[in-house]
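Batch job 17 of 40 flagged for manual review because the log was empty.
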Amino acid sequence: MRTGRPPGPGPPPGPNHGGRRPEQPAHPGLWRWRRNPLRRREDIIEAWVILIVWIVVAVGGVFAGALAAGATEDTLSRQRTERHHATAVLTEDAPWNAALAGQDGQRVRATVEWTGPDGDRHTGRTFVEPGHHAGYQVKVWTDQHGRLTAAPPSQAQVTLQSVLLGGSATVVFSGLTYVTGRGVRLGIDRHRAARWDKEWEAVEPRWGHRMG
């Protein structure tokens, strides 16, 4: 015959008693969409504001970026088609600067003359290599009107600038949308706090009387 203390009661059933998994709490960020006695009209409005902001950021940001990238690519591509090489002739000796001698890529300004697409003669100043004499031929870039202009961007530069400006437009648009939505939510918070204060002013005297 066994003696000793009788076995005590087992441990209380825990949350997993019976093999059932505990109920998972709902996502805290979705509480505004769930019915509960504490939810106010301001909470519903705020939920819609948050949803609209995210939709505008997702859709409008992509659209703004694509629009900016497309406009940039069109502008730069048009420059590539409208700018042309032309042969110009120095009308004066190019200045010789001893400080620039032997340094690749260094140029000086000099007056040149060239013929435009319309056959008219044009005169202007552009950058040329130093030390050349009058009558030396140089290559210049002109626009569709025959005026001197900068070299057009390469295709790689067109792509890079389109991507950069498109991304910048997306960031700026999304940032402005978020700031606007945040301002609306702050206004909702102030209105909600004012309603809580007004309701508490009506309830507080009765609570104070019960506790007293």
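Reviewer: the log was empty due to a logging misconfiguration, but the result itself is present. The mean pLDDT is 79. Unflagging and moving on to job 18.
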